[in-house]
Amino acid sequence: MDLIKNLEHEILELREKLKIKEEELREAKRNINFTDKSDDDVVGTKSNISIGKLPKWAIERYSRQILLPDIGVSGQERLMSSRVLIVGAGGLGCPASIYLAGAGIGEIGIVDYDTVDITNIHRQILHTEGDRCRNKAVSAADSLKRMNSNIKVTPYTIEFKPENAVQIASNYDLIVDCTDNVPTRYMLSDLSVITKVPLISGSALKMEGQLTVYGYRRSRNEKSSGPCYRCLFPTPPPAAAVGSCSANGVAGPVPGAIGALQALEAIKLLVGRDREDLLVGRMLILDGEDTTFRTVKLRPKNPKCESCSDQPKIKQLTNYEVLCKMQSKEKDLELDILPKSHRISATELSNSLVEQRHLLIDVRSEAEYSMCHLEDSVNYPLEQLHGERFDVLVENIKNNENVIFVCRRGNDSQIAADMVLKAFPDAKVKDLSGGLHAWAEQVDREFPVY
Description:
Helix content is about 40%, strand content about 15%. It is built from 18 helices and 13 strands.
């Protein structure tokens, strides 16, 4: 362990030295005036070459997209003077920012309060194993700077919330929503309306992805075109109906594809393409199961929308966790349903298992249970606990004195135990506080944490 700690410390020191040298290199490149001299000037011969508004290095670097009639020199000039804010440096934000950096966007802002975890790396392609525990915005910014030293990248290592969102977003020409929770989606939609900054919104879960454009306008003086998020979803969905990558899983290429398409929509919007060429009032849906794309027409802009109508009720950002009755930060989610008398710590359960038999009921999905589980536990997935299967479970519990519900983090297990207690108040049931994550931390370090 000492060897590993020493090596990790040395690597951190080397990374900091490398970061300093890379910044010195970028600064040196910025200070060179590439347009002062051509190769002919160096040898003393007058150049007969006429270079337009783009410098030599930009023509060479971005030539393949400048060749496109839809972009051209004028489009490239627009890209190089544009500022794009990416909210979320995860599965969507990484590919979106890579292609925007490659396209030469003048300034990219990246907002993310979270740190890199080993479970992120299969899809969040700007981060590596060496970035574990680093802030995602900083890790992503460093990768983008190494990729393109001619652009400005600004990391925001804070939680994007109503108190700071307007101030940050007002400095940008476009917002790219690369988040994964409902409260933030409502906030970004309202933010887009208030700041008059267009919003490109993407999502990815399991084998599916979606993409659309909200708040499109040619200039900030024009009215927005197409519906906003609130036009489509005036009322937030119930928390139980909302999935997440950490709970439901996601195939890495799905957010990769959606993130790349977010970058494509951003480039098209920034170079001045009309709304007919963009996903305004339309939603692109990717089904990874059969690898198909389809575009559906969205309902039109709601003339009575509380956010984007001519007489809006929402004129400032609010508390969106209260609005949606769910937290925006899933890692911090910790339900408090059961009284302490019906909860047991991982250490207490470990000691109790030595002394007596228990009925351990694991309420995670079958896929999760097959990955890892406690010995002698039985699997009753929470989503299947209804009807006859629930009745069978209650009958089994009636014949046991020590019943422990188990899940990943100690939330679903409380829900399951509470269901049983409501049906059979005398049941001797408890839930594992903190779930299998607590078991891995307090009892068995070899137990996988995912």
